[in-house]
């Protein structure tokens, strides 16, 4: 129990030097700022002169063009895109939405798919999941979105399994060969923080605009967690299981197939769940590179100011995500069923048979009742116009308008603009020193060194001011999200019913396509930084709330009871017992909030910003691959700096608290 | 599963095999669609025309700037709406690289400029003359812009030079770039409730005309070279001191290989020419009447047989 104290003894031998390094960093930074304030700072110390900026983008362009044309990589990728990948996509598109391609069988009637979804739901999680599964597809058909939803699904059913397979293979390779893992890890970190716009352009150039590029971008986006979870799961396989396998004389392949992979089943399936969720997260974003379906429709609807229809598409995406998420999670929990020897074949496969029966049955019935095959244009239940009116009238309520007008004035004039101008006024070296000091103070030496390297690269990329504005938006949004999210989490953690409801709301907010937040944000606050910060805030508050609830409810009951017995007030208990123990978990949430903010700040370019996102958006139009990559890397490096500092803090803290 | 589909596929193969249809390739003609209604419907109309001629057609959703690269490479066969103002630069860049060419203009003309919804005029009656803007600047002020008016320009990548114009004409306005068309509509939509004056970038033909009646600000008339020669326009020392051309072109572009691969379809494409009212009608079918684009295209085609027939008959 001794280790479970909430007061952490400082490892005092290092404190002195640590304090001194921090002082040196900060004093230098302030000296630079002061020098600028009194006007004696030479220009080259304020901003790196244009002439010293290396032409990274041009060099990268040349490299890309060399790889693309001279090495002929484009022929390889184009062959893959137009050969096997397109074949798979065409097949699924024919079956699901009836595209005129081999095998010329589709489209499968919606009722048959809904029935199968119901049966699968029942098989993995009982009646509730059956209702969710069938209900989602019935909603999709009834609302008149079947065809576009199936265009989306036809890409996902190809992209998700491919991401799974590639992730599994790479994960196994990383587990087998340490060297490969060491090489892969940094690539994955960058991939996970790289803004999606940076995936999109190479995907188009190498894999042809349309579903093929969409599938490739989706796979790239979805693969990292699959690799990480596979490696993690394989590493955790207990030696007893391995020995049992060896004793029964397994070959290496048998060891992998029958011992390691089944033993790591849970982690691998969590990876599958992640893959599915990330694939759905890309539905709207890939619409920019020609992916048809829900995302493309959503963008078209938003382009003609149809809030109601956009909202309905958002609901469909959430329903699909929640259904697939719950089903795959239920599959994780469900252990394989083993039948007694001699159970008849039909009994073992009872559920599959029922599913098949319903599938064929509905296909036949649909030939007689066409409404079961396709809900016609005039028959669907879309309430687009009514929702339009409802949303607009809510936004026009005087009380809401008054509040937002005041908030817009206050935040913009008193908080955001002064804060931005302050950050922009800081000389580049001073800014870097301050970031390094922060990373060092929070995470220790290694994150500090990386912060120095990463931010120096950003400074030499030639996009310093825009990077600072990006960072300013992220910091403002996360700060506001913390002020809202943590109190909300604390209150919710008091009762399990509240926790459950709030966590459900968090899930929904997270899967709802972020684009849909943009329009109400603009209507409430206008095109300015407040709308930008507001739309990021919704996204960034989610992990903060979630991890606050998880952190607080995982505090060992002995500790809270001890606090109660010693007569501490609720406040004392919260601040001296619960918070210190929950902080490492809450830090994970904080870290995620920052990562989400970096993701969302790029999307917020669609409101109107002057940051890296705006430039990235601009590169989408052209073919400036080099510039696109430099901008993306800047976002990634800044995000990684925070990620490393905070994760390292949380780990150290956990170790010292004796948790984990 | 669906016997009908199998049969129709078989018939199509048979027809194509018998050589009854011109010499067009049976590969699908890929038509790009973007995210605004008139373009989607127009592309669908053209797709239906091609299908009537016995071609296979497929649609692909693309970015409206990146599409020229795709046309050039032959990934898509054509582009129905090349706007002089919005896409002229991307189109010309692709033209220089080679691979696509001009397939003729539509009758329709396009205009893109500073615009306000009608209710704005009540508080600033001097409009649409641009000289009235400075007197009304305070009406367009927002918390962030202080005393200056705010003009919401199109996204930066549309290269509208709003800032340059505000400076050249000495307008007391701060120019803010919206991030997307949706952001522009959201601003107008938010101002609509209490009829607040707003000044935003807008264009025609466009669905917004039907939803929010409004007018373009009449800037000094465009002179050729206003964007390159400071001497043009009222301010002799500045560029961009004119309004945009009030009659910009609306072009069709085609992939160079289209002519040989689908000669009949290509011939029809060069004949096709839509007018402003026709385009507005297409947009209206989707934006106001809430039809799906495919149905809107079919309906438009039914109503306008006499317009379309000559385009096709000239090529068979």
From TrEMBL, chain A:
This is Glycine betaine transport system permease protein OpuAB. It is a multi-pass membrane protein. It comes from the Bacteria. It comes from Falsiruegeria mediterranea M17. Keywords: Cell membrane, Membrane, Transmembrane, Transmembrane helix, Transport. Belongs to the binding-protein-dependent transport system permease family. Residues 149-328, 467-646 form the ABC transmembrane type-1 domain. GO terms for cellular component: ATP-binding cassette (ABC) transporter complex. CDD domains: TM_PBP2.
Automatic annotation (TrEMBL), chain B:
Coiled coil: none annotated. Residues 1-22 form the signal peptide. One of its GO terms (cellular component) is ATP-binding cassette (ABC) transporter complex. GO terms for molecular function: transmembrane transporter activity. Gene3D superfamilies: Dipeptide-binding Protein, Domain 3, Glycine betaine-binding periplasmic protein, domain 2, Periplasmic binding protein-like II. InterPro entries: ABC_Gly_betaine_transp_sub-bd (IPR007210). Keywords: Signal. Residues 27-302 form the ABC-type glycine betaine transport system substrate-binding domain. This is ABC-type glycine betaine transport system substrate-binding domain-containing protein.
């Amino acid at each position: 129990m001794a280790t479970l104290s909430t007061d952490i003894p400082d490892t005092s031998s290092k404190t002195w030097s640590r304090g001194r390094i921090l002082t040196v960093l900060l004093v230098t930074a302030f000296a630079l700022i002061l020098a600028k304030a009194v006007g004696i700072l030479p220009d080259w110390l304020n901003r790196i002169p244009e002439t010293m900026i290396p032409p990274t983008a041009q060099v990268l362009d040349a490299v890309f063009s060399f790889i693309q044309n001279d090495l002929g990589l484009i022929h390889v990728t184009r062959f893959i895109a137009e050969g096997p990948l397109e074949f798979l996509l065409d097949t699924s598109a024919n079956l699901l939405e009836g595209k005129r391609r081999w095998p010329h069988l589709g489209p499968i009637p919606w009722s048959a798919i809904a029935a199968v979804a119901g049966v699968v739901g029942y098989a993995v999680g009982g009646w509730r999941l059956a209702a969710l599964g069938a209900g989602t597809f019935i909603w999709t058909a009834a609302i008149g979105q079947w065809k576009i939803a199936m265009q989306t699904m036809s890409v996902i059913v190809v992209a998700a399994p491919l991401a799974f397979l590639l992730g599994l293979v790479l994960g196994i390779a990383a587990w087998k060969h340490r060297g490969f893992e060491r090489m892969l890890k940094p690539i994955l970190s960058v991939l996970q923080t790289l803004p999606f716009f940076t995936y999109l352009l190479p995907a188009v150039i190498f894999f042809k605009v349309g579903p093929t590029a969409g599938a490739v971008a989706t796979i790239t986006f979805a693969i990292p967690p699959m690799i990480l979870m596979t490696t993690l799961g394989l590493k955790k396989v207990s030696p007893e299981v391995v020995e049992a396998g060896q004793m029964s004389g397994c070959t290496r392949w048998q060891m992998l197939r029958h011992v390691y992979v089944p033993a790591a089943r849970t982690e691998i399936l969590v990876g599958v769940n992640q893959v599915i969720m990330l694939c759905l997260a890309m539905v709207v974003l890939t619409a920019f590179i020609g992916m048809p379906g829900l995302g493309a429709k959503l963008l078209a609807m938003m382009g003609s100011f149809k809030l109601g229809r956009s909202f309905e598409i958002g609901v469909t995406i959430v329903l699909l995500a929640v259904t697939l998420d719950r089903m795959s999670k239920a599959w994780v929990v469900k252990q394989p069923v083993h039948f007694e020897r001699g159970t008849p074949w039909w009994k073992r496969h009872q559920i599959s048979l029922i599913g098949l029966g319903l599938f064929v049955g509905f296909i036949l019935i649909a030939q007689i009742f066409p409404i079961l095959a396709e809900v016609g244009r005039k028959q669907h239940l879309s309430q687009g116009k009514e929702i339009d009116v409802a949303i607009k009238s809510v936004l026009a309520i005087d009380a809401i308008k008054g509040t937002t007008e005041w908030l817009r004035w206050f935040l913009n004039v008193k908080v955001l603009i002064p804060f931005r101008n302050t950050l922009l006024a800081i000389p580049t070296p001073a800014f870097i020193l301050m970031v390094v000091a922060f990373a060092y103070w929070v995470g220790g030496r290694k994150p500090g060194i990386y912060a120095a390297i990463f931010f120096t690269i950003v400074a030499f990329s030639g996009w310093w001011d825009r990077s600072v504005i990006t960072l300013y938006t992220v910091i403002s949004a996360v700060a506001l999200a913390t002020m809202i999210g943590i109190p909300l989490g604390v209150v919710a953690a008091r009762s399990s019913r509240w926790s459950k409801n709030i966590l459900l709301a968090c899930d929904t907010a997270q899967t709802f396509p972020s684009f849909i937040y943009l329009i109400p944000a603009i209507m409430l606050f206008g095109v300015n930084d407040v709308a930008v910060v507001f739309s990021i805030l919704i996204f960034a508050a989610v992990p903060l709330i979630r991890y606050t609830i998880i952190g607080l409810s995982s505090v060992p009951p002995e500790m809270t009871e001890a606090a109660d017995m010693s007569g501490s007030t609720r406040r004392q208990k919260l601040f001296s017992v619960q918070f210190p123990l929950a902080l490492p978990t809450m830090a994970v949430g904080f870290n995620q909030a920052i990562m989400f903010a970096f993701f969302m700040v790029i999307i917020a370019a669609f409101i109107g910003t002057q940051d890296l996102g705006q430039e990235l958006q601009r590169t989408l139009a052209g073919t400036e691959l080099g510039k696109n990559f430099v901008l993306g890397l800047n976002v990634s490096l800044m995000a990684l700096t925070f990620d490393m500092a905070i994760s390292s803090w949380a780990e150290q803290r956990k170790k010292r608290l004796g948790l984990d | 599963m669906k016997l009908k589909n199998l049969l129709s596929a078989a018939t199509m193969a048979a027809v194509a095999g018998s050589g009854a249809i011109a010499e067009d390739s049976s590969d699908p003609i890929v038509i790009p669609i973007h995210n605004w209604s008139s373009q989607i419907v127009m592309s669908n109309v053209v797709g239906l025309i091609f299908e009537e001629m016995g071609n296979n057609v497929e649609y692909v959703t693309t970015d409206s700037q990146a599409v020229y690269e795709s046309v050039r490479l032959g990934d898509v066969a054509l582009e129905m709406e090349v706007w002089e103002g919005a896409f002229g630069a991307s189109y010309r860049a692709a033209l220089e690289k080679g691979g696509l060419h001009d397939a003729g203009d539509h009758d329709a003309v396009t205009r893109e400029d500073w615009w306000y919804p009608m209710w704005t005029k009540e508080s600033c009656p001097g409009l649409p003359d641009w000289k009235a803007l400075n007197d009304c600047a305070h009406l367009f002020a927002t918390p962030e812009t202080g005393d200056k008016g705010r003009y919401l320009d199109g996204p930066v990548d549309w290269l509208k030079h709003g800032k340059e114009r505000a400076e050249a004409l000495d307008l007391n306005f701060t120019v803010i770039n919206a991030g997307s068309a949706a952001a522009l509509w959201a601003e107008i939509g938010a101002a609509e409730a209490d009829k607040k004056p707003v000044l935003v970038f807008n264009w025609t033909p466009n669905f917004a005309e039907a939803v929010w009646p409004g007018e373009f600000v009449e800037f000094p008339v465009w002179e050729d070279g206003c964007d390159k020669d400071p001497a043009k326009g009222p301010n002799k020392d500045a560029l961009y001191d004119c309004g945009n051309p009030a009659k910009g072109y609306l072009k069709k572009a085609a992939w160079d290989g289209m002519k040989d691969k689908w000669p009949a379809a290509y011939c029809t494409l060069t004949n096709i020419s839509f007018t402003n009212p026709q385009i507005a009608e297409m947009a209206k079918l989707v934006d106001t009447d809430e039809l799906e684009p495919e149905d809107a295209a079919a309906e438009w085609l039914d109503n306008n047989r006499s317009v379309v027939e000559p385009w096709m008959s000239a090529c068979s």
